[in-house]
């Protein structure tokens, strides 16, 4: 019977003599015509480069809504001022002045965000909707504001206040004009197709318009009295600015979940996630419109809200934390990259 060959034995002394070079070896390209099955390096190289950018001031909600309110108030005032008469007169300008202000301001609130996002198509659609809505609500809320102001003046007279120089008179005007801010918030929510957006807009509008109303008479005193075009122009400008700015402040303060743009042309912009389904793509009608990037599809991805969860569903290349995904539940602080854009998903911790 033949003897079995003795097996190979490796001792600890043999292992100690083995040295593995730590310098990484260069990757040698595969010969032409051979099959390539990819590698980790290939996957990393497929992520597009991302250029960090500094956020712009005009992309902040309080800024562009404040600017929209300022521009709208001045536009409404400029249209009506030729028909306004001081004193006991009551010409057409006096009748439609405040409703015109509200209509022009709501137009500004309706289109401001779309213009900032460079979506002219969306701005036109929202403008067509917001202007007639603002006009109707302007007259309706003007009636309500006059009722509230009348009650305030009645209280002022009851306590012996009969001059606009008394702070109690300023408070009466502030409460009445807060009604106009509610109109701006209602239209803001309707064109944004979100009840919550409208609720935040109403609250911010009431606060801002109240501030504007409170400052109107002191400004009139500073500019020479409640009569005269200068006092009206300055007072209404502050009224519009305060209304829009407070809408942006309240909306930002009370948001629950949002996408903050950390890189790309919209760096610094935040997209608050209100809707059950938020669309992302290169179509101008997308909720998050991404422009100047040919790699982004018209309907690139969607964000679906289901209770406390936000699910990202991708139709085109999307990376979360540097990894390609097609279906992913987002977690707080996730970094999402789509083309040249990068977003930080944020949610308010409770």
Q: How would you summarize the topology of this molecule?
A:
Layout: H1 12-16, H2 40-45, H3 61-80, H4 92-116, H5 120-158, H6 167-191, H7 195-222, H8 229-253, E1 257-263, E2 270-272, E3 277-281, E4 288-289, E5 301-306, E6 309-314, E7 319-320, E8 323-324, E9 327-329, E10 335-338, E11 341-347
Parallel strand pairs: 3-4
Antiparallel strand pairs: 1-2, 1-11, 3-5, 5-6, 6-9, 7-8, 7-10, 10-11
Helix pairs in contact: 3-4, 3-8, 4-5, 4-6, 5-6, 6-7, 7-8
pLDDT < 50 stretches? 20-46
| Total strand segments | 11
Shape: elongated
Average pLDDT, rounded to a whole number, is 86
Q: Count the helices. How many?
A: 8
How are the strands of the biggest sheet laid out side by side? 2-1-11-10-7-8
Main beta-sheet annotation: 6 strands, antiparallel
> Compute the gyration radius: what is it?
30 Å
The SS-based structural class is alpha+beta
DSSP helix fraction: 40-55%
Distance between the termini: 80 Å
Approximately how much beta-strand content do the residues carry? Answer: 5-15%
Order of helices and strands: HHHHHHHHEEEEEEEEEEE
């Amino acid at each position: 019977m033949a003897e079995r060959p003795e097996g190979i034995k490796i001792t600890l002394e043999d292992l100690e003599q083995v040295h593995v070079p730590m310098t990484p070896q260069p990757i040698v390209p595969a010969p032409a015509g051979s099959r390539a099955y990819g590698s980790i390096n290939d996957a990393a190289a497929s992520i597009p480069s991302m250029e960090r950018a500094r956020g712009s001031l005009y992309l902040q909600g309080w800024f562009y809504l404040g600017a929209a309110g300022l521009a709208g108030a001045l536009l409404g005032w400029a249209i009506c001022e030729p028909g306004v008469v001081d004193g006991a007169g009551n010409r057409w300008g006096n009748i439609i002045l405040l409703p015109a202000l509200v209509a022009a301001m709501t137009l500004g609130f309706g289109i401001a965000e779309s213009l900032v996002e460079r979506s002219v198509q969306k701005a036109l659609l929202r403008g067509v909707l917001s202007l007639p809505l603002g006009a109707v609500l302007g007259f309706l809320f003007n009636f309500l504001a006059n009722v509230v102001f009348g009650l305030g003046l009645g209280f002022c007279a009851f306590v012996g206040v009969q001059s606009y120089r008394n702070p109690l008179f300023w408070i009466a005007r502030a409460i009445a004009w807060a009604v106009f801010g509610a109109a701006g918030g209602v239209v803001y929510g309707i064109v944004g197709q979100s009840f919550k957006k409208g609720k935040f807009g109403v609250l911010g509008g009431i606060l801002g318009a109240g501030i504007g109303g409170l400052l109107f008479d002191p400004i009139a005193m500073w500019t020479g009295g409640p009569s005269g075009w200068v006092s009206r122009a300055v007072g209404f400008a502050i009224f519009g600015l305060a209304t829009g700015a407070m809408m942006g402040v309240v909306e930002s303060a009370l948001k629950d979940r949002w996408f903050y743009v950390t890189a790309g042309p919209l760096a610094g912009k935040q997209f608050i996630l209100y809707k059950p389904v938020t669309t992302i793509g290169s179509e101008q009608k997308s909720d998050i419109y991404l422009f100047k990037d040919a790699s982004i599809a018209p309907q690139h991805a969607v964000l679906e809200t289901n209770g406390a969860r936000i699910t990202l569903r991708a139709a085109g290349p999307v990376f979360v934390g540097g990894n390609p995904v097609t279906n992913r539940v987002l977690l707080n602080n996730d970094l999402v990259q789509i083309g040249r854009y990068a977003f930080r998903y944020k949610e308010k911790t409770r």
